[in-house]
Amino acid sequence: MAPIKLIIDTDPGVDDSMAILAAFNSPEVEVIGLTSIYGNVPTAMATRNALTLCHLAGRPDVPVVEGAHKSLRGAAKERIADFVHGRDGFGNTNPPLAQAAAAPGSAAEFIVGMAGRHPGQVVVLALAALTNVALALHLDPQLPEKLARVVVLGGAFHCNGNVNPAAEANIYGDPDAANVVLSRLPNCWMVGLDVTHQCLMTAGQIEGMAGRGRHGTFLRDITQFYLGYHRKVYGMEAVYVHDAAALAAVLDPTLFDWHAGGVLVVTDGPAKGRTIRDEGKKAWVGGNEWQGLPPVRVALGVRSERLVSLVLQRMMQ
């Protein structure tokens, strides 16, 4: 089969770097572009970091297109996760940054353009707030029929969030955009904290990347700060595998147990960003806001050891 044409919507970020470099090493996908968005770092820094990762991968031909700087409501990112990823997004390692420029246009325009050029073939791997994808849906109402799939890193359904007890960070970053995407895409798959918190990469595995493959030492180095965050906050000698787990859902969906149902996101109040799924266990009497929503496929189980092994192999290839 031909490789999947993949757009990675990203806010690199240590764990985004893991996913992006692993994607470049994966024959199942052809990375046709990176689009940047705020989250782990501000949007402009996300663009520079994405360009640097393309350079490190030996793929300066892959376009990087800058995305939104604010949410759909026009709000700036409330919290930049420099305490997780470092001020530079690369664990305060300050590597030389690529001098290339971003491609012209907006991230939303790029997504629409690629989906139109390759109808039914493009998968968007959304690793941050869903603002760019929501804006793309506004630009082209037929986009849901043109995209093969959107795989979202986000959500917390049967566990606490990681911003607060209610919300996972990417959904929290723009809950209005998440509702646009989840209510309009019949081909949306979500990989959230229910499964990523079951996928651990140990300190020993991280150290074992050094000197292996093209990127092993770089990834080992940038992950030290990220490991320090997990040590302090979670009390463990390991890191959660988030973004690379979402990539794994593109490469091998059989690694997960998927459960379909309509999903709504709380957009205001103390539970802002909470994802709530209709589990389909009851025939509801009377109407509710979940009825008529497309069935989002939500990952609730995972073969974690197989997933981590796959991710490590691709990162060090």
UniProtKB/TrEMBL annotation:
Database matches in SUPFAM superfamilies: Nucleoside hydrolase
BP GO terms, sorted: purine nucleoside catabolic process
Chain ranges of the Inosine/uridine-preferring nucleoside hydrolase domain: 6-307
Source organism (scientific name): Chlorella variabilis (Green alga)
Cellular-component GO terms for this entry: cytosol
Cited PANTHER family: INOSINE-URIDINE PREFERRING NUCLEOSIDE HYDROLASE, URIDINE NUCLEOSIDASE
Keywords: Glycosidase, Hydrolase
Molecular function as annotated in GO: purine nucleosidase activity
Family: Belongs to the IUNH family.
Keyword Ion transport: no
Name of the protein in its database record: Inosine/uridine-preferring nucleoside hydrolase domain-containing protein
